Amino acid sequence: MENSKFVLGSKYDLRTKLILLIGANILIFLGFDWIYQSLITLFFLVITISDGYKKSAIRYILFFVISVVLEKSLTYFSMNFLLNLTLFILAIGRKFLPCIIVGKWILNSTSVSSAVATLQKLKLSKDSLIMISVIFRCLPTIKDEWSHINMAMKTRGISVSLYNLFHRPAATMEYFFVPLFVSVIEIGDELSQSAIIRGLDAPVNKTSRHLIKFRKNDIGVLILMILILSIVIFMKVSGWDL
């Protein structure tokens, strides 16, 4: 009954997600074989699927499969700069895919209020809380500003494209990036003032409608993460080629 007073949101606590992100960053540098990469990627995909993100998981799986197939296919052709560049981009994208999966999952599944409540529980400084709150709220606003600027410039026959970036770089910078940077600065100031007005830096205990605590899902996933890290590190120390 007590939990019904709170908004549960994601199945996993933000602290669990941040630990998983750190674990993903460690794991991607411990192995280079595509089979190892596929197993690590699958582990994080299963976690995001369990939190309800099935469509994005399908896109990640398609990217991984296509990148492996293309990499294996392109090796049969004579290498030139473009092919080498393509192979490099595919390899980098596939290698960092676990981090991208977890990072995108954190952004999509974490509301600003739950993030602030979690960070308050971690006893972060007030300045850090305001900065993180502004960043979380600023990202969707920047996306909206970008679409508005893009729509306005299309009426003048200018759009953000590779062609315009190479053939009209000055006009593209002037009409797109300068207004965007000005908007970002203004939005950042407004959001900072808004956070202060709401009492984010007030020296009092805060309440939250979000239930911030480790649950069974968090404990299970963290145990799996520690187990996988331990196995991989043991295999590396034992001389296994991953």
UniProtKB/TrEMBL annotation:
Keywords of the record: Cell membrane, Membrane, Transmembrane, Transmembrane helix
CDD domains for this protein: EcfT (cd16914)
GO CC list: plasma membrane
Principal subcellular localization: membrane
Transmembrane segments: 20-48, 60-79, 219-237
Subcellular location: Membrane
Family annotation (Pfam families): CbiQ (PF02361)
Record's bilayer topology term: Multi-pass membrane protein
Name the UniProt record assigns to this protein: Cobalt transport protein
Organism: Peptoniphilus duerdenii ATCC BAA-1640
